[in-house]
């Protein structure tokens, strides 16, 4: 659709000029709409104002730059359009929950906003809670099944394994649902597992999460895994990964399920771990 291309071209213009003054009139002209229409359409579709989006993108890039270089905080602030370091620090802390200096620590979590792109469904422009971790090898016990799909398309077969085939897999690991569970995709094999001390030894095999560097993403609380994990993975691979400076190290993913009783199901949340290299 031409209108989608025009709006994506307008976003590319803004992305190219995040370190400079962004001319909204020029962006609207690229999108072939009036300035008022461009601002209204953007806010309606993305769920945030254009001004907020531009600020969040600048603060996202500023966080990446502080983490990956020795640039001074004041220089980053000026580069992304903040008049003084105090204004920058307040805005940065409000978005990321940490100060610019703390952001240099690679193990601190950041709240990043990938660039928006317009398709039939809008991608990007959503807050993502992520952190980079270094982990030693983690020993688990679980049961596995060979899937006939790619990592991207695994969730339907996962749903069957966790749900319909629960007695054949999940209940062999531990008959109590609340607690921390792991779903591991390893080049076509999928594991349901728990920490060794929480698993039934007789009916399970040893499986390890390899040591290494992982990007860890966390969902909001209260949702269903079958809804939250596919959405989170799509956002990671369509929006975060292309913009992050990292690549996936190999065809391997870890899902962490933090499950609670029915009375406390609002507490449940999930994580996806992706092995990465810079």
UniProtKB/TrEMBL annotation:
PROSITE patterns cross-referenced by the UniProt entry: HTH_ARAC_FAMILY_1, HTH_ARAC_FAMILY_2
Record SUPFAM superfamilies: Homeodomain-like, Probable bacterial effector-binding domain
Keywords: DNA-binding, Transcription, Transcription regulation
Top-level taxon of the source organism: Bacteria
InterPro entries for the chain: AraC_E-bd, Cass2, Homeodomain-like_sf, HTH_AraC, HTH_AraC-typ_CS, MarA-like, Reg_factor_effector_dom_sf, Tscrpt_reg_AraC-type_HTH
Domain HTH araC/xylS-type residues, every copy: 8-106
One function term, GO molecular function aspect: sequence-specific DNA binding
PANTHER family xrefs: RIGHT ORIGIN-BINDING PROTEIN
Name under which the protein is recorded: HTH araC/xylS-type domain-containing protein
Source organism phylogeny: Bacteria, Bacillati, Bacillota, Clostridia, Lachnospirales
